[in-house]
Design goal:
There is one protein chain. The longest helix is centred in the first third of the chain and has 25 residues. Helix 11 links the parallel strand 11 and strand 12. The chain has 14 helices and 13 strands. It has a seven-stranded parallel beta sheet. The protein has a six-stranded parallel beta sheet with strand order 10-9-8-11-12-13, with helices on both faces. By secondary structure, it is α/β, with parallel strands linked by helices.
Length: 405
């Protein structure tokens, strides 16, 4: 039996690209699976789920679970984590970090409780977490009770690099997993450097994410309005402010900027765009949170000339893959695993530094290209995805690796 653990999938707006691997699983595997969901989103949106999948919600806030978790704060491993928080002064602050330790424990307790209720008594079960966070921790705690099960986890961005946030029980999680699937080479090198002295790095594998190749790609004419698209949550690290600064400095060119995605800073970013681009010829629109299908329809029906990513940190963004699969070149800063996706043959890879002027110049370079030069870059963008990030290949290989554990 195969079990997947997600934070919200198939509900809500997060983990949108899990749908690719679920569709691949449904198309190629007949084995039953159970999808454990940490919490159900308030959104009524429900993504694709294979017919042979059962959904079980993990989160349990009963007094019994909460009290049991509180007692486990006094176990040796928990006290070690607490002392680490008190000693290291993490940026999130002591109380937030202490709560995170408690949350990891409550999720593990809730998951084990739910698994016992639905257990099929098959000791050869395989469990896979989508994130190296509390879900992965829950798997390691389950394995203590059922040593013969196999457990694995993906790792993406925030859950890979310790510099981004406090990650409790790190050594316990990484040591306890049977396999770790990281989405880019940078993550693997990081693990080998930081954890190589105690972690068996032979169990780390690169497993790229991927997207389905669209059948229809709209024709583009460089003489038309130059259309730029971004797609991300509207949060600080996505740095939409850098793009706004860059666009506000471009003169005498008809530009339309379309952004897909919502978030807590959406109103602030709208206000900033209005202030900075009040005197420019740039037209812009914020589409808010929309489904993956709506974005794909837009890409298939609208000539788009550039996709831009200005993030401070990233994993290997599926949003870039999606755009490139439609033959859309990408401008992005060289952070995370973006350099495995973007180079000067299929877009422009910029330095990590926060420099709106570099973004502006990169956009203006595309104005100067001949149609033939531009179309070659578009072809290369599509080819990059077809060869290296094609969901038909990447997810099939990933599922095979899971089933072989």
């Amino acid at each position: 039996m195969l079990y997947f653990l997600y934070e919200n999938y198939p509900y809500g707006n997060g983990e949108a690209f899990v749908e690719y691997e679920m569709r691949d699983f449904a198309a190629n595997q007949k084995e039953d699976l159970t999808i454990y969901v940490l919490r159900k989103s308030d959104s009524c949106t429900k993504k694709f789920v294979p017919e042979n999948a059962k959904i079980v919600f993990i989160e349990n806030k009963s007094f019994r679970i909460l009290f049991s978790s509180f007692l486990k704060l006094f176990h040796k491993s928990s006290l070690k984590e607490i002392l680490s928080v008190l000693k290291n002064h993490y940026p999130e602050g002591i109380f937030r970090c202490l709560y995170r330790i408690y949350r990891y424990i409550t999720v593990a307790e809730s998951f084990i409780d739910q698994y016992k209720k639905n257990c099929d008594n098959n000791t050869s079960n395989t469990f896979v977490s989508y994130w190296l966070n509390e879900c992965a921790f829950a798997l390691t705690q389950l394995k203590r009770k059922y040593p013969n099960i196999k457990i694995a986890s993906r790792g993406h961005g925030f859950d890979v690099f310790e510099e981004r946030c406090y990650l409790p029980f790190r050594k316990e999680i990484l040591s306890g997993l049977d396999r770790i699937f990281l989405i880019n080479i940078e993550s693997k090198l990081y693990f080998e450097k930081i954890y190589g002295s105690w972690l068996d790095t032979s169990k780390i594998e690169i497993s790229h994410l991927g997207v389905n190749l669209p059948e229809k790609i709209p024709q583009k004419d460089k003489a038309d309005i130059f259309r730029i698209v971004t797609c991300s949550s509207v949060i600080t690290l996505k740095r939409l402010d850098l793009l706004i600064d860059a666009l506000s400095g471009i003169k005498n060119k008809k530009i339309e900027w379309v952004h897909f995605g919502g978030g807590p800073l959406l109103d602030d970013i709208k206000k900033y765009a209005k202030e900075k681009m009040a005197q420019s010829s740039v037209k812009y629109s914020f589409k808010g949170q929309v489904s993956l299908e709506e974005i794909q329809i837009f890409y298939a029906s609208t000539p788009i000339h550039l996709f831009v990513n200005c993030s401070d940190t990233e994993g290997t963004p599926v949003s870039i893959m999606e755009a490139m699969s439609y033959g859309i070149p990408t401008i992005a800063r060289n952070v995370g695993g973006i350099n495995e996706l973007v180079d000067n043959t299929c877009g422009r890879l910029l330095p990590k530094e926060e420099n709106p002027e570099l973004i502006k110049k990169a956009i203006e370079e595309f104005f100067q290209l001949t149609l033939q030069e531009y179309m070659k870059i578009c072809e290369n963008a599509r080819l990059k995805i077809e060869c290296e990030f094609n969901a038909a290949k990447t997810y099939t290989e990933y599922i095979k690796k899971i089933l072989s554990l």
